[in-house]
Amino acid sequence: MSYKNNANANRDALFGGAAGDGGSKKKSGSNKSNRDALFGGAKPATKASSTPKVSGGSATAPLTRTVLDRKNRKNKPQKPSLMGEARVAKLKQAEEFRDKANACMKTGLFSKADPVAASTYYKRAADAYQQAGKEDRLERLYRQESAKCNMQIGAWASAAGDYTRAAELLIPKDATEDDMDDLPEAPEFPTLEKRRFASSVFHKEAAKAYTEMNEKAKAAQSKVKAAMALNFGVEARLLSKESLQEMEEAIEAHVPDVMNPYARYRQTGTSAFLGPDETIANPSPESIELAKEHIVTKAYSHEPLFELVYFLCKYREYASALYAAGAASALLAHENLSTLTLSRSFIMETIVTLAMGDPVQAEQQFLQRHVQQTAYLSARECKLAEDLFRAVKLRDAEALEEARSPAGSNRAALANLHSVMRQLVMELRLSGVARAHKEGETTNSTTTVSVKSKKKSSSSSDGKKKEKAEPPERSLQELAGMKTGYEAEVQQGANLDGDALADELDALNFDLGDDDDNGKGLGFGDDDDSLDDDDFDLR
Fold it and tell me: How crowded is the C-beta side of 126, counted as CA atoms within 13 Å?
């Protein structure tokens, strides 16, 4: 047998033979069964399909369809990759890896546990269950065991990946409230609360592993996932203290409180970068240098912070949302780069500050921080921010409506905002905290405008009536001769008898003594007749 035939035979034994080659034309039954066991009975590619077309521009058509199909498959349930005999063979292979891993972790008189080999076998078993499909529980258990072994031996990257996969097997990455009935199987977590807590714990373990690798961005993102897992499927309208604390710790993992201009709005916990005798207002130079080293500078690291801002605004936690927005702005401005994303972060700060009902703070931050960036002065967001806080500060309802009108001059800046931020702009009030309007309730601004318009219309109508029915001018003699309506009462008072009134007054006994007239001797009664405190029984 020649060398070429030898190579073809080896290839056929490994991969089940490739059709269209000039080598071995006959296919043995063993090669076909091996290929089916490995790849699930995949049909060999034909010669025509293996050769790409070059002419006409149709060569890019299969690639385009592949990308579109991949995007369309994201929201659809994935089918098991193996079926039939191939799935049975893969499950048997997973059980073999599991037995080998358990054997590696056994201790004896002359042997000890080997987590290095066990982690490899546990990972292979989990991968086999993943390929087999419909075995989410077994895959999660062996991912967890593999992660524990990797943490013992210091394989941080593998441990972080296994913990993240285990957490996503409890609560999928892009799961929503509509997917509550399609969650992976987890009999040991019968309630949704336990499932949320376990998923959060796995994400926090992954964050610890990333921290050991000095991957600050991935560690912070895992902390954000841990915080969001605690709120999956929660129907309450208020955030729990535990979830809020996890979110604020994730925010500080991106930007330490020393570098956050809104650190004082943090509601839970204290900064890990401050000493016992330090404050946010007066940190030590050592703390500042340490904080600068721990700022996440990786690209797109601000996106988890933006997601936290939107999430916190939905729950009306404006103080924590402002804390997250300040961290995002500090992260984007750390490299002294003025970008469109930084402008959006600044306008988010202004909107959230106005939602808290503090236009003075919004104006102060706008003047001291935002406009110091030259590019922000020419941005659309700068005009929108100035129009909003000036209208709220001056209590000008018409200016506020003009600033946030979808058809006004700020329509482009509003269109660039997230839907949560646009809704929050519509809920801003001239006084007080922003809140959603109830059915049948009008806003302060619209009410004020309507009242003003009514007053103007009423005043204009009254003026027209006065102009139409204006009375003629009268002289002083005519006014003096006019009757007032009190003439009858004046006539009755003129007919009163003065002597009768004097007798009536004398008949009244006021019991006044000489002491009561301050010693003037007016002679109103005797001193003995004056009332004394002893004459009253106070019991």
Answer: 24
**Residue the block writes with tokens 């509601």:** 267
**Is residue 319 in some structural domain?**
no
Q: What is this structure's pTM? A: 0.67
Output Rg (C-alpha) for the chain, integer angstroms.
42
Task: Find out whether 94 and 128 touch, Cβ atoms under 8 Å.
Answer: yes
Strands (E), 457-531: none
- Looking at the domain assignment, is residue 356 inside a domain? yes
Tally of domains within the chain: 1
In a domain, 354, yes or no: yes
- 495 within a domain of the structure (yes/no): no
Range of the domain at 394: 350-437
| Residue 141 token pair | 């258990």
Give DSSP secondary structure letters for 382-446: HHHHHHHHHHHHTT-HHHHHHHT-TTSTTHHHHHTS-HHHHHHHHT--SSS---PPPTTPPPHHH
Q: Over its length of 539 residues, how does the chain's per-residue pLDDT go in tens digits? A: 555 566 676 677 667 655 444 444 444 555 666 566 555 554 544 444 444 443 344 333 333 334 444 444 445 555 556 788 899 999 999 999 999 999 999 988 888 999 999 999 999 999 999 999 888 999 999 999 999 999 999 999 999 999 999 999 999 887 877 777 778 888 888 888 999 999 999 999 999 999 999 999 999 999 999 999 999 988 888 899 999 999 999 999 999 999 999 999 999 988 989 888 888 888 999 999 999 999 998 989 999 999 999 999 999 999 999 999 999 999 999 877 668 899 999 999 999 999 999 999 999 999 999 998 888 999 999 999 999 999 999 999 999 999 999 999 999 999 999 999 999 999 999 987 887 766 555 554 444 444 444 445 555 555 554 444 555 666 666 666 666 666 666 666 666 677 777 777 777 755 555 555 555 555 545 555 555 555 555 55
CA torsion through residues 529, 530, 534, 536, sign: positive
